[in-house]
Design a protein that fits this description.
This protein is of the alpha/beta class. About 50% of the residues lie in helices and about 20% in strands. The protein has 3 domains: about 110 residues, Helix Hairpins; about 170 residues, 2-Layer Sandwich (Heat Shock Protein 90); about 130 residues, Response regulator (Rossmann fold, 3-Layer(aba) Sandwich). The chain is built from 12 helices and 14 strands. The strands form 3 sheets. Strands 1, 2, 3, 4, 5, 6 and 7 form a 7-stranded mixed sheet that branches. Strands 9-8-10-11-14 form a 5-stranded parallel sheet, sandwiched between helices. Helix 11 links the parallel strand 10 and strand 11. About 30% of the residues are buried. The structure holds adenosine-5'-triphosphate (ATP) and magnesium ion (MG).
Length: about 425
């Protein structure tokens, strides 16, 4: 028989052990969580670094390719159409085009593309794509789509998101050489702060539309899952894959304010989930109104500074056709001279390249502002380095137009900056 005292002491020790145990567990959980955050941070920094590298290479590469394509086009124009020279030049041109496509994907990864945002229903987008997809995949792969009826809207570049879906679907197809099911599903989801476990990243809490692409294929080991989104990571044999598919998906989704996550078991298939922030009906209405309000064209004076001559001529032509008065300069120093010579002339907008020899776009803008503080500025570049963009985010109050741009995008952006209140 235990005395009452012994019983009380025993109970106390028991309670203390339980307490210690739970404290221990809490500590362990805390350490595990920190480790996870640390790993995410290292991973994010790695992607950022690779992105910078890729973007830098892509920029220089684009300039070289412009020259290769330009000169091979000149040869094509000069050579008689069925000569060997013509045939050779055609091959050069085609190869350069393929290289341009590669650089385009690299730029997408480094999030240096322009997104043309539209409010869309992802379910409709998926349905439209399905027809095309059927032609691209083998007969033993069965595509299935599951759409939620009241799917929320998202504000994305539909063309870019189509690229994402196609990349994911083709990967899924490749993972099922013996056939299987390819399921594309769209649904609404509300993510909380605590849902970093879902996306392996910090998320802004709120409503998202989740697009998932699942296959019943070979699946992936944890090692493959870890490196999946790195550019040039591929397990496909030489010549079959470039390893840029998921890297571009990653870039596009990040640039759209979303997340991408993967879950997979070797031998049992994989699921990729893309989370895109929802827009409310009011946001959608506002976005449409803003778009509709912008009437391209005007009569203001624009100082255009661009060192690449073909682009300078092109932009001058587009802007003149829209009614603007254009003063063109080859570089920053020349731009300042133009301004100096025309003291009476009012200049409304400086449209300048960022990376230029002698005087960069940012410095030019600063020097111009010292003389004419009311000139508005629009920067343009294929790759901005660090001059105006930090961690993929524009410095505050800076207007930016990414190259390559279409005439329509140039027109809208110029009007938008001219109309913006300071
Ligand atoms: N659904 C999937 N199932 C199994 N493995 C996959 C799946 N999706 C991607 N992977 C793995 O991730 C790697 C990288 O994919 P990614 O799309 O970036 O490049 P790729 O398909 O190899 O080449 P590319 O898309 O440029 O033609 C693939 O090589 C493959 O190992
Ligand atoms: Mg791929």
């Amino acid at each position: 028989m235990h005395s009452r005292r012994q019983l009380v002491a025993g109970a106390l020790v028991g309670a203390r052990t339980v307490e210690l145990k739970s404290a221990n567990e809490k500590l362990r959980a805390e350490i595990a969580k920190r480790k996870e955050i640390e790993t995410e941070l290292v991973q994010a920094q790695k992607m950022e670094a690779v992105g910078r590298l890729a973007g830098g290479v892509a920029h220089d590469f684009n300039n070289i390719l412009t020259a290769i394509m330009g000169y091979s086009e000149l040869i094509l124009a000069d050579a008689t159409s069925n000569s060997t020279l013509h045939g050779n030049a055609e091959e050069i041109f085609k190869s350069a085009q393929r290289a341009a496509e590669l650089t385009r994907r690299l730029l997408a990864f480094s999030r240096r593309q322009i997104l043309e945002l539209k409010v869309v229903n992802l379910g409709n987008l998926v349905n439209d794509l399905l027809k095309m997809l059927r032609h691209m995949i083998s007969e033993n792969v069965e595509p299935i789509t599951i759409n939620t009826a009241d799917l929320w809207l998202v504000n994305v570049d539909p063309h870019q998101i189509e690229q994402v879906i196609l990349n994911l679907a083709i990967n899924a197809h490749d993972a099922m050489p013996k056939g299987g099911k390819l399921t594309i599903e769209t649904a609404n989801i509300v993510l909380q702060d605590a849902d970093r476990a879902v996306t392996h990243e910090g998320v802004s809490p709120g409503g998202y539309v989740v697009l998932s692409v699942s296959d019943t294929g070979v699946g992936m080991t944890p090692e493959v899952q870890e490196r999946l989104f790195e550019p040039f990571f591929t397990t496909k044999e030489f010549g079959k894959g470039t390893g840029l598919g998921l890297a571009t998906c990653y870039g596009i989704i990040k640039q759209s304010g979303g997340h991408i996550a993967v879950s997979s078991t070797p031998g049992q298939g994989s699921t990729f989930r893309v989370y895109l922030p929802r827009v409310t009906a009011v946001d959608a209405q506002l976005a449409r109104q803003r778009q509709a309000q912008i009437q391209p064209g005007g009569a203001e004076t624009i100082l255009l500074v661009e060192d690449e001559s073909s682009l300078r001529h092109l932009a001058t032509k587009i802007l003149c056709n829209l009614g603007y008065n254009v003063l063109a300069a080859e570089n920053g120093v020349e731009a300042l001279q133009v301004i100096e010579q025309r003291r009476e002339q009012k200049v409304n907008l400086l449209l300048t390249d960022v990376v230029m020899p002698k005087l960069g776009g940012r410095e030019l803008a600063d020097q111009l502002h010292a003389k004419r503080p009311d000139v508005k500025v629009l920067f343009t570049s294929g790759w901005t380095g660090d001059a105006i963009v930090h961690h993929g985010i524009l410095d505050e109050g800076v207007a930016f137009l990414a190259k390559p741009y279409t005439p329509d995008v140039l027109a809208r952006k110029v009007r938008e900056v001219l109309d913006a209140t300071a």
